[in-house]
């Protein structure tokens, strides 16, 4: 059986990536609700329609940005969890998503870590307890 094992740096980067991406999702959802509430309100100090029109366009662009950020952070967390469990073949895509959309340090630490193959031969006839060594090294 062949599976992948992240080393300590890759695991720390995965944990940082998951934590800060989760915080970024919460923050962007808060900003999304705040911007949707401000979409129908007008600026009280501005009397012209041109400035109010520009204000609404900026609010719409920030809403689109917040939605896209949340949509890219959710797969970042899922892919990083797969890397942490050793189910992906490479750790590059979650690390790059973590650098771009999440907290950059988590993705950089993931890239500094190694994600190695580990092969394990399983014999159907052998007993699993015979492979355990009791030496204290």
Automatic annotation (TrEMBL):
Protein name: Uncharacterized protein
Originating organism: Spiroplasma corruscae
Transmembrane spans: 12-37, 57-84, 91-111
Keywords annotated in UniProt: Membrane, Transmembrane, Transmembrane helix
Membrane found in the keyword field: yes
């Amino acid at each position: 059986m062949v599976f992948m094992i992240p080393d300590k740096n890759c695991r720390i980067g995965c944990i940082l990536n998951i934590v800060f991406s989760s915080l970024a999702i919460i923050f962007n959802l808060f900003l999304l609700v705040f911007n949707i509430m401000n979409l129908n309100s007008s600026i009280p100090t501005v009397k012209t329609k041109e400035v109010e029109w520009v204000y609404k366009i900026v609010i719409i662009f920030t809403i689109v940005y917040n939605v896209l950020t949340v949509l890219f952070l959710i797969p970042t967390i899922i892919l990083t969890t797969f890397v942490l469990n050793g189910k992906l073949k490479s750790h590059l895509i979650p690390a790059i998503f973590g650098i771009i959309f999440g907290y950059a340090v988590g993705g950089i630490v993931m890239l500094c870590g190694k994600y190695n193959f580990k092969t394990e031969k399983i014999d159907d006839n052998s007993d699993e307890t015979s492979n355990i060594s009791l030496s204290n090294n």
